[in-house]
Amino acid sequence: MDRVRELTDAVAVELIKLRRSLILLLMVVAPGMIGVLATMFVFTGNTTTEWPTFAMSNAAIWAFFMLPMTLTAITALLGQIESGAGSGGGMWTHLGTLPVRRSTTLIAKHLIALACLVIMSALLIVAVVAAGSIGSLLAPQNALQGELPFALLARVLGLMFLASWLMTAIQTGVALWSKNFVTPLVVGIGGTFVCVAATTAKSGKFFPWLLPVNVLTPDETRLWWVIGLSVVGGLAVATAVISLLSRRDVG
Amino acid sequence: MEPIRAEGLTRRFKDQLAVDGVTLAVPERSVYGFLGPNGAGKTTTIRMLLGLIRPDRGLALLGGHDVRRERAAALRRVGAVVETPALYGHLTARENLEITRRLLRCDRHEIDRVLGVVDLAEVGMKKVKQFSLGMRQRLGLARAMLGSPSVLILDEPTNGLDPAGIREMRALIRDLPERAGATVLVSSHMLSEVEQIATHVGVMDKGRLLFSGAIADLLQRHTPRVIVGASNPEAAMAVLGETGLKINLAGEGRLAVALPKDRAPTDTAADLNQRLLDRGVAVHHLALESPSLEDLFFALTIAKDKPEPGTTSGTDGGEPQLRYADTDEEAA
Fold it and tell me: Which one of A237, B202, B278, B293 is at 20 to 30 Å from A8 when CA atoms are compared?
């Protein structure tokens, strides 16, 4: 019970730290950019006229590029809250002097990273539907047909969230491990590059940054393999990183 | 039970032995000045005391709890500022304090209280990135005082403060045992600072603790002396030499006489004066001189390395002896 309260306190504290941070801006801007792009697609007629296809193509853009890049930036910023120049570089030292397990703070950081992903996925649903609707209003000749794809988007983005778990754990772990901003960026940019360059590779189902893209596969077996790998791998990586960082000297 | 206790703390960084078997005990409600030059091992010792780094050997106890095995219990009543306080620049002073308050689970009113103590109540809603270094230091101290800890560990708390800020901070620290019932360990490389605020002192150099105890004990362990100015120094030296006391030249033709520890210094000084007068040597200057903390610090650190020419010789117990700040010359 005490551990649960400690964790809720740690999460509440992480939420305070997010105030006025760029993370909140990124969480809005990333899905918003897809929304703007999607609006232009509909307006110019450079897209399908079916809602489901429109929704899936935007989900694909999200999975290929925007998701890994945004996650890279968000996790790097999360790490820098404690070790960046803005905090004098030593917040871990202060946190280490408090009667709170370091592992609790690290778990809270992972939960916040996952929560950011959930919120962005929810905002993306809104952005895609809004984009299709606005585009259809502005250019009635290109209006999208069919029912609004809330359920489809919720399912696909929900699965993409699960498929991102391993990538999130790796990015968060690197960001918390490294004191500088560049290392998690290099890892994230490298992962995204491979993701874009090797999309159709057979071994893509093993590559953490490609797992969300695999949600788009019609192959159900591959889909659940990807989800399983991501969730189990994410938990394993997060546990390993938290365990190692909890034992590391501070400062 | 001492609120802060270290037993044989040792830590090596690659080839460098940063802290070598430090054993210390800080008495309750004392201000313990942790002295040493930069690189002496003070911060490493403090980090081990707080459980931030692991000792290779030894034990750190806070409130009787092993900081490694019973971390939460050990740190529950401890406030600390380690080096320049790190703060969240994008948050306000109040938000910074709220983070620590929540983790300590102390009352909301604590934030107002500690802001008042460090005189930052009016800037509580200001973002910390707009704070001066002095304000950051004070906010760091305020944060350390959240929850009225019984132990405060402050690493170089006056670093970067302007003279007025240093004065305020010293007064604040000096009064903490009385005002808050706290035990304070404060590290500093400034001897004058520790002399002004501390009741006890630990002297570190090159990773080793050379002395730990009450300042009064440290002073007592070293021989006070009387400076004698006489009309005829040669005659005075001859007369005083008969007493068997150690005599040095203290510059300007004056003599420094080391006083015995088994008699009140004033009595001995009066005797010496009488003896000189009886033998027709006029005395124009007679002053008792106790070593300052600075003198004692250098005596300890120099004695550890090697005895220097001009250092008075030991008389008892092999204690490291004092080298006074002026240019003594061995005379007797």
Answer: A237
Reference A9, options A113, A98, A119; nearest CA is: A98
DSSP string for residues in A59-92: HHHIIIIIHHHHHHHHHHHHHHHHHSGGGTT-HH
Q: At what angle do helices B233-241 and B265-278 cross, to 10 degrees?
A: 120
Q: How far apart are the C-alpha atoms of A42 and A58, rounded to whole Å?
A: 12
Sort A182 into a burial class: Cβ within 10 Å, 0-12 / 13-18 / 19+.
exposed
* SS3 call for A144: coil
| Structure tokens belonging to residue B142 | 């305020």
Overall average pLDDT of the A126-144 stretch: 95
The Cβ of residue A92 has, within 10 Å, a number of other Cβ atoms equal to 20
Q: Which of B99, B125, B159 is best to mutate for the A interface (most A CBs within 10 A)?
A: B99
pLDDT above 60 for B322: no
Q: What is the pLDDT of residue B321?
A: 37
Q: Which residues contact B305 (CB under 8 A, 6 or more apart)?
A: none
Confidence band of B248 (pLDDT split at 50, 70, 90)? confident
Contacts of A250 in chain B (CB under 8 A): 47, 52-53
Mutate to test the interface with A, among B46, B91, B96, B155 (most CBs of A within 10 A): B91
d(CA B100, CA B85): 13
B266-291 pLDDT, tens digit each: 888 899 999 999 999 999 999 888 77
Name the pLDDT band for A83 (thresholds 50, 70, 90).
confident
> What is the torsion angle, in degrees rounded to the nearest 10, for the CA atoms of residue A184, residue A188, residue A191 and residue A193?
-130
**pTM score > 0.90 for this model?**
no
Residue type, A176: L
Record the tokens describing residue A36, joined without a space. Answer: 């703007």
CA dihedral in degrees (B54, B57, B62, B63; nearest 10)? 140
Cα distances (Å, whole numbers) of residue B117 to A103, A105, B112, B310: 33, 29, 9, 48
Beta-carbon contacts of residue A197 (< 8 Å; ≥ 6 apart):
none
Which pLDDT value is given to residue B320?
Answer: 38
Contacts of B141 (CB under 8 A, 6+ apart): B81, B85, B118, B154, B157, B169, B172
What is the DSSP code (8-state) at residue A145?
B
Cα B74 to Cα B54: distance, rounded to the nearest angstrom: 15
